[in-house]
Design goal:
single chain, disordered N terminus, 8-stranded antiparallel beta sheet, 2 domains, about 325 residues, Lipocalin, alpha+beta, 16 strands, disordered C terminus
């Protein structure tokens, strides 16, 4: 539902809403940040903090709704006049249990805006997802000190420390996104024949991304069964909608043709069947993660001389 929903779950709220502010682990990576006046628990995901150029930070927060907040949410939807009680029940808004909020933070100006808000029920099914990332710059709001410390001070320092630590590792980070997914390339297995590089890359799926995919899967299975399909059939038909923890792929980059292809892929160590189309060369899309690899291995220097790398005999 885009353009309709009334956003009530905020990752960041004005300080007067705080009843308590604690710093204890809620789960493995979710750390409690504060409680609202209704008793909702708001947490941040410690592994989701990503640091970008110009002191921009993105992170994920989670809000767990109390019965009072759920009732307030439904009342607010009804008050818009857009929804009837039947609409709310059919779309699952009366079953809301928690939400994930992707937040972008400007550390220098202490401002924030929402990139995405996802609503889930108690079973982990995705009820609704709203993308705010394309909205105008007018969506920036003032940042409170508590989240500023977590993201812009602690988060930035930890990220910089991790980047220093991983410089000596064979797996080098070349890309990450605000979901917390991280991509690496293996610096020790790179080979080159003429202008074609063969590289191993590793993709780590975040807890956030896996939860969202599972939420989409449960929603799809629900629709399937409403149309008359069996629970067993739904599980079988949508079994592919599950992200592995780790994907490793062997790829080739053709610097001369600005193209690439996948040679092999392993999900959590299990080899995957490669479709014929995957083995074909494809052009590299501008501003893609593959282009980042292209720029690392294929980009020329200002003098036009190709960067020298180890070449296979």
């Amino acid at each position: 539902m885009r353009g309709k929903r009334f956003t009530v779950g905020l990752c960041i709220v004005v300080a007067i809403l705080f009843q308590s502010f604690v710093s204890e682990e809620v789960s493995a990576n979710w750390i409690e940040l504060y409680k609202t006046t209704n008793g909702d628990i708001v947490s941040y995901h410690s592994q989701s903090i990503m640091v970008w150029p110009q002191d921009i930070v993105t992170m994920w927060c989670k809000r767990e709704y109390t019965a009072q907040s759920k009732a307030d949410y439904v009342r607010r939807l009804l008050s818009t006049g857009v929804f009837t009680q039947k609409d709310i029940s059919e779309q699952g808004f009366d079953r809301i249990s928690y939400e994930y909020t992707a937040t972008e933070i400007k550390c220098r100006s202490k401002q924030f805006r929402f990139l995405e808000i996802d609503l889930f029920d108690s079973d982990g099914m995705l009820i609704d997802s709203t993308d705010y990332s394309k909205k105008s710059e007018k969506n920036w709001n003032s940042l409170n000190e508590s989240l500023y410390k977590v993201s812009c001070i602690d988060g930035v320092n930890e990220r910089k420390l991790n980047e220093v630590k991983q410089r000596g590792d064979r797996w080098k980070i070349y890309s990450y996104d605000y979901f917390g997914n991280i991509e690496y390339y293996d610096a020790e297995s790179i080979t080159q024949v003429n202008q074609i590089f063969k590289i191993w890359i590793k993709y780590l799926h975040s807890e956030i991304a896996k939860s969202q995919m599972m939420g989409v899967k449960l929603k799809a299975m629900g629709y399937y069964q409403k149309l008359g399909g069996s629970a067993k059939g739904a599980e079988s038909d949508f079994s592919y909608m599950k992200l592995p923890n780790e994907t490793k792929s062997s790829i080739e980059l053709n610097c001369a043709e600005r193209s690439w292809r996948i040679l092999a892929r392993y999900d959590d160590g299990v080899p995957q069947d490669m479709k014929e189309n995957s083995l074909k060369w494809s052009f590299i899309t501008p501003e893609s993660n593959t282009e980042k690899l292209f720029n690392i291995f294929c980009k020329t220097t200002t003098g036009g001389e190709k960067k020298k790398r180890k070449t296979e005999k």
